[in-house]
């Protein structure tokens, strides 16, 4: 774990905490370096939960050393030692290299652990997709395509949840644990303590789909209780910069309030990747060019509720809410700020990417717009009404 260069570990599954192979150290289930594991031999972990041995995936002749649940039918492989280097049937030697079953990074020591998908259902060699934590504070969980292209973003960790994953009663959050250390510039993600009677695993499929599933003993089957991406809005960047994806609308993409499509033609054709641009210049932009007229009303913030926060934030962990807002207002490149519990001040000084409207469990995003945009979405007839009850009915932050 102390090596300097980034280290990529090829774990297919993340397991609940205590299952680690450290358990394969009781006398009867230990293999020492001088011993060999024969092809028809297996080791069983001390807790009798996992079995280690050689296997061939369905319709494959390659041989891998792997680990599966001893008492769950179907030999669900949870870990493979030699993913890039299958053995021929004649090889009987195998070297075990087993690390901790977690993902994350430590900037100081240069360690980076990701979970890597299989190439195909019957081919454990590393595939196209990885899941890991982004190297930033607070960290976000991502799946990436081709090592670096974001495919799905779970949003920033607030100490108890990833803010980009709305949590209903079924709750993924009680099963996971993220340890963030600002001083060490490190963050690691793992499952909470393993409970034999409650087997939960996370699987990154060759297609990039991330599943969390539990073993239902009475039904004798795996039940997928959570997956991502679950809909087009979950796919990173579906709608382009300064737009918002809403599964409850058709089409799913719309510009953020105060913004218009960058290319109306593309937008109408259903190509949303170009995103949107400001309809009305900000006063700070006009002032910077020396063109502001005296008495112009200054820019302000629209409060957008239940949002999936944009990507690419800057974090001020010690700013109070008012300071956070003022910082944003005083910097013309600041397009939005938020102040969620557990995280506090985050601001955006680059384009707002991958924003989503959640039906519930989102965060209030304060979006900077020109003064004249504050009420523009309402029909003229409501203007007077709006002026009377602006902060009550429409949720503006004034
Ligand atoms: C395992 O395989 C070896 C040689 O391939 C054989 O001698 C041995 O009897 C086998 N053991 C079992 C339990 O099948
Ligand atoms: C994957 O990334 C590499 C460089 O990081 C690039 O050369 C290659 O074209 C990419 N492949 C695809 C399918 O995007
Ligand atoms: C494990 O789960 C079972 C059933 O959900 C529960 O009764 C038990 O207390 C749990 N054990 C631990 C150590 O959390
Ligand atoms: C979508 O629009 C972008 C620019 O907005 C363009 O570069 C891209 O080629 C378009 N894609 C399709 C499939 O038309
Ligand atoms: C200022 O306003 C004038 C007149 O509207 C315009 O011609 C000029 O381009 C503006 N300057 C800048 C820097 O926007
Ligand atoms: C505004 O924010 C940008 C990005 O963080 C920074 O580079 C710039 O110096 C800031 N400007 C002011 C006036 O603080």
Automatic annotation (TrEMBL):
- Tell me which residues make up the Apple domain: 284-370
User: What are the entry keywords?
Assistant: Disulfide bond, Glycoprotein, Signal
Q: Where does the Bulb-type lectin domain lie?
A: 28-156
**Mind telling me which PANTHER family this protein's record contains?**
BULB-TYPE LECTIN DOMAIN-CONTAINING PROTEIN (PTHR32444), NON-SPECIFIC SERINE_THREONINE PROTEIN KINASE (PTHR32444:SF250)
Q: What is this protein called?
A: S-locus glycoprotein
Example GO BP: recognition of pollen
Q: Where is the signal peptide?
A: 1-26
Keyword Metal-binding appears in the UniProt entry: no
What CDD domains has UniProt attached to this entry? PAN_AP_plant
Transmembrane stretches, start-end: none
InterPro entries recorded for this chain? Answer: Bulb-type_lectin_dom, Bulb-type_lectin_dom_sf, Pan_app, S_locus_glycoprot_dom
Source taxon at top rank: Eukaryota
